[in-house]
Amino acid sequence: MSASAHADVKKVVLAYSGGLDTSVILKWLQVEYGCEVVTFTADLGQGEELEPARAKAKLMGIPDEHIFIDDLREEFVRDFVFPMMRANARYEGDYLLGTSIARPLISKRLIEIARETGADAIAHGATGKGNDQVRFELSAYALDPNVKVIAPWREWDLTSRTALIDFAEKHQIQVPKDKRGESPFSTDANLLHTSSEGKVLEDPWEETPDYVYSRTNNPEDAPDAPEYITIDFEKGDGVALNGEAMSPATLLAALNDLGKKHGIGRLDLVENRFVGMKSRGMYETPGGEIYARAHRGIEQITLDRGAAHLKDELMPKYAELIYNGFWFAPEREMLQAAIDHSQEKVGGTVRLKLYKGNASVVGRKSANSLYSEAHVTFEDDAGAYDQADAAGFIKLNALRLRLLAQRDRG
Amino acid sequence: MSASAHADVKKVVLAYSGGLDTSVILKWLQVEYGCEVVTFTADLGQGEELEPARAKAKLMGIPDEHIFIDDLREEFVRDFVFPMMRANARYEGDYLLGTSIARPLISKRLIEIARETGADAIAHGATGKGNDQVRFELSAYALDPNVKVIAPWREWDLTSRTALIDFAEKHQIQVPKDKRGESPFSTDANLLHTSSEGKVLEDPWEETPDYVYSRTNNPEDAPDAPEYITIDFEKGDGVALNGEAMSPATLLAALNDLGKKHGIGRLDLVENRFVGMKSRGMYETPGGEIYARAHRGIEQITLDRGAAHLKDELMPKYAELIYNGFWFAPEREMLQAAIDHSQEKVGGTVRLKLYKGNASVVGRKSANSLYSEAHVTFEDDAGAYDQADAAGFIKLNALRLRLLAQRDRG
Amino acid sequence: MSASAHADVKKVVLAYSGGLDTSVILKWLQVEYGCEVVTFTADLGQGEELEPARAKAKLMGIPDEHIFIDDLREEFVRDFVFPMMRANARYEGDYLLGTSIARPLISKRLIEIARETGADAIAHGATGKGNDQVRFELSAYALDPNVKVIAPWREWDLTSRTALIDFAEKHQIQVPKDKRGESPFSTDANLLHTSSEGKVLEDPWEETPDYVYSRTNNPEDAPDAPEYITIDFEKGDGVALNGEAMSPATLLAALNDLGKKHGIGRLDLVENRFVGMKSRGMYETPGGEIYARAHRGIEQITLDRGAAHLKDELMPKYAELIYNGFWFAPEREMLQAAIDHSQEKVGGTVRLKLYKGNASVVGRKSANSLYSEAHVTFEDDAGAYDQADAAGFIKLNALRLRLLAQRDRG
Amino acid sequence: MSASAHADVKKVVLAYSGGLDTSVILKWLQVEYGCEVVTFTADLGQGEELEPARAKAKLMGIPDEHIFIDDLREEFVRDFVFPMMRANARYEGDYLLGTSIARPLISKRLIEIARETGADAIAHGATGKGNDQVRFELSAYALDPNVKVIAPWREWDLTSRTALIDFAEKHQIQVPKDKRGESPFSTDANLLHTSSEGKVLEDPWEETPDYVYSRTNNPEDAPDAPEYITIDFEKGDGVALNGEAMSPATLLAALNDLGKKHGIGRLDLVENRFVGMKSRGMYETPGGEIYARAHRGIEQITLDRGAAHLKDELMPKYAELIYNGFWFAPEREMLQAAIDHSQEKVGGTVRLKLYKGNASVVGRKSANSLYSEAHVTFEDDAGAYDQADAAGFIKLNALRLRLLAQRDRG
Predict the structure, then answer these.
(1) What interface predicted TM-score (ipTM) does this complex get?
(2) Cα–Cα distances in angstroms (integers) from residue A135 to residues A329, B196, B394, B398, in the given order
(3) With a CB-CB cutoff of 8 Å, which residues 304-323 of chain B face chain A?
(4) Self-association or partners: how does it assemble (chains A, B, C, D) (predicted)?
(5) Ordered domains of chain A (ranges, CATH)
(6) Each residue of B295-304: pLDDT tens digit?
């Protein structure tokens, strides 16, 4: 990027964690771009103190009014996680999209803060090989087509750990002892999940070492007795645990505790990145896994077959859109409109058994149930269903196959 | 059905298990239709002795040349289960289609035997409320458009247990003591799974009683130590367990033993039947669950993203076709052609950890791997990937979103 | 149907055209069911006088308060045709669903009138071989699960023309001279289209005789000079013709006049019926064909690619649902929610050239246009688009293909 | 690109038309890259003399053995156009993909020639704003992951017409008089179509001027009498015109003559490019339009409904893949496998009427027909179809809707 391009940027909002890498980025922006930096630190439930980020920002000369620390946990679960869960979204059959779903919210706040502070650019700490850069930037451009996006990892020459630490020391950025060496893997965390990838996880034949896990007990160490819980749903969203009403983030946090205890939600996956390569990740989604199973459970008795099958057919594309960063694209919104339309009557209670890695639906009931014992019973159904109808049903479904067979198998 | 319709049938091939219900059907066909009956009893791995069926058929006057008892286990797994597993098929998100996939094979043999014996009709013991009647009959019509199908449960007046037993006794059919009362639930079994439904399972809020399970240990009673296994794949199909080459049916049987031991593959589901009602079933698919996870595991490193995502998008429709009985329909064959095309290089070894209900992929390797450590590494990648490319990639993916935003959010 | 079943019906609402067939049905219901009959005659723009239907009903003893004649033209176009057109729906690539889309509205009114008049059944004149019986009845059951549906053509023994006319004469129903012989084909008409099928059209190799057409000039007889028109759209729906604001039905009627004049909208199709057979039909959809092309034209400049492609992927299923009679099914409503979400900005003006069977979009403009001459121009684009971005875009899109090639083509 | 990068290229195969632009590219490669150039000129039926390209290449010092001129017309139609037509592919509802489908074949030959001549790079003359660069390069990388691709329009500084002509004159490249000024639009042509875009076409509200068309008569100037033709199909591909057997390219050429005469196949489209912008193009696909309609016509009577509807659902994605340049991607090949599987019995004769822009199917017949007059007839069907079956068919299809209505509309 040319010097004049740098000169264009007067003020940049940085997604700032307070950690070493984004601290280096903060300083680098000040030095290389010569611009004002606004820091934005989000509490998405990652389980870290945020106030140290404020202190560090101040140390690097950021004025109070340019330091934003927001608790986004409720918005995250209510407006991003739950809508996604309504779709039963799993990427490539398994992944609950814990990292993917957080990025658009961060970008949304970056753009809002840019508007509030009159900034003309945003910056993030994602690398040039991953999906997160795409997710951050597509969301940002969708919300502000004229924003400038600075992705230092794609621009700078601090491409080795040594160079990064040299830069930090040269600019009086404190380097924690445990950051001096190479970290054995990289993580991302929020209220929905923790992901780990890189280094020790890079050989997909090697089992993930136990020390990688931070959010779940090893199932082998989980309690020997199962635990039963209930989750209540209304209009497709969870509203209570064991009969106690809870806000979205509170509910997910409580499920995380339960999932952790019982070793639920570990996933070892080799997935296909949007940028074209395969990568191996370890995901821990303790509460999300329980919630996802419960949501399918309540849909089983309250959702019509036509709606349920359409949802299943649309889901892979919906999940791909979120994975690829297209949360704010019209086609994701269209799919959401269809999905949300189906959830009006998805309410009731699901009972689950939690035991050593398993979260199994064992019961479901609902005032909106479409399940009809009168129809399905092996007993006398008092005329609810006329078995003779099945003959005609089969005959007409078979007609085209018989015409085919007459032609082809004659 | 009129007497003249009955008179049309000279010889019928009956899917005959040797149990009370199909024995009554056998006799009823002789009495009501006045026709010759050919019995067909298939070994699909349901784990029952088949010779007693021969003896019973003889007792009812069926000559030797009209008694067919076939071991179809290898054909079942090789030509039906494995092709379906290539698609990662799960109906309504979970069900591995264990009953659905067996029906077309039975119909295929019924039609073959009808041709061999000059029969003009087939008969089955499925009820008028379920999916199996549809599956049997659609397959039969697809293979022989002129066959007559007799479904006694839709025709006769033996609609209560008492009437059935009276008929049996009147015709000297032995009624086992445990069949005198009402069975507390109904089951279907083959090498892939055992399903249970009805009676005690009809309230979807009530947890399935432990005595319903026959194919799996309760996870709580499973071994306290995990067990590691490997499965080898070639062209999308399993070929070896722990390095030992096995035929399809042998492999599935061995996985069933492992799954049973570790309590794997239980599923409590409320599903949507093709005939329009919801039903609650309990499925046990011990080996199938392990196999399905392993297959996804090997695809993770050997299948291209475009192929994998297309498979995921097609899967719900493919599973629905099998569930609804359209195995021999052109659209199922078209989807199979697409799926099989993708499996050419799906080979290698998957390592799984089995533990108290969990079957987790913990490693995978392949000579055909598309996973490139060189590309994905956090370390220096020696130029395999140019991070600057990501900027252009994002810019052009974002272009339409920016044009939208310029219009809509200006 | 047993006598007792007949006795169950006290009052039935009949979809009554006033023609011979439904007059016979009216009488037959009175005679066979011994029930009160309520007649419902809808003006859907079929171009026939409706008052004669009132007179005939009276002649058969129907009291005034049981004769319903409704002008549904605006509701038909506004709430059924236009929503369907938003989806660009064409069944099997071509058919604009003119008959299919009218049936749910008729059923809706039948059920409403049944509620108003305390009737417990409805009746229609569709035969047992066609799709219309399915459409009428699925819609009726979806709106009133307990309604009884009487389909005389599936019940009675008036299966030959002679028997029907005998019945009519026996019951003093006037038989028009031109109805004495066999009609050479059968038609259905409404504001959207006229369909013709049967008899002289039954051989799909024979060209449709010219006398079958009633709604369009032969293109060879159409004016030798083209005519240019404009249609204005707002939120996905047509609102004006040549700059003159019009209601939905008025607009469609005006387009029908234009389409008739220029010989537009003839379609000779062999289609697949829901009941399993193929049939050959001739459709004339003069205004609908023009409208459909215009709608695609305005979408071209106002709809985002992601939205447009998702609509194209969903369309075949959406069209199939309407064709099969599932207008009031949840999955149709879900798709509609997605489609409608996309139409918010679909507004502007389309210019078409009408000439001897052709309706060609030749221009489109919109205040909501996403078309950017600045981006697409071959001229200097003043930096709107950086061609260098394309290199990275291609490189990352190619990455998975290169990894595949390294494995497979090495 | 750095000098050292240039130095890496020793020999490059250039897609060379012989026109001014690719002649400038040829020289520019010699000058800037200092590498050997191999020229490849394909006859894809674009209707231009190719020998002048040889002469020009020689003039610029290319030795005979490095000049490749290939007639690819039969391969183009047989292996690219016809397989695509089997899918009834139309991009965004209308576009027959005439340019898109030619690019992978050109790339395939570029890579083959690179292998034959030991070249390490290929070059093409597509600009950085269009789809063709993507199509050329994705195909090339899919066939040779290590090839270098040179796209001069993304690299050089000859970005104005003046600069280009200055360069040409400086290097003794002849500049035709009509190339001195700006061309009023840009074209691409092959046996399937001619596309025109740019300049005078850039305002989507302005009707395309008549001088833009080169492949079709104005319908207004087409013959006043219609012409009837027949096309015979075998296994989904056209094999004869009016009963005369023809090779693929010969058939398409003959249809082009007919289409031109009758003014068939003009399309004015605003489409969405893969690179993110909308563009307006004028397509002329005279023979292709006739062929596409005929193919649908023969499918109407020979393809089962399940197969036909699956094809319709898959088509938009298939067309998008071709449009975006993914011909050699696994997912396109999977879809092709499914499509080809459906075409085994797609054979017979279609009769069309050609008249002033219209190509209408008016008849179709086949030894493989699935159309059954016995089933569909309004006359007595001799028991082929039992209308009573429809009652059961409707009842079970309605069951879920009734259960819904009982819950929701009670």
Answers:
(1) 0.96
(2) 11, 45, 9, 10
(3) 305, 308-309, 312-313, 315-317, 320
(4) Homotetramer.
(5) 11-179 (3.40.50.620), 186-302+345-365 (3.90.1260.10)
(6) 999 999 999 9
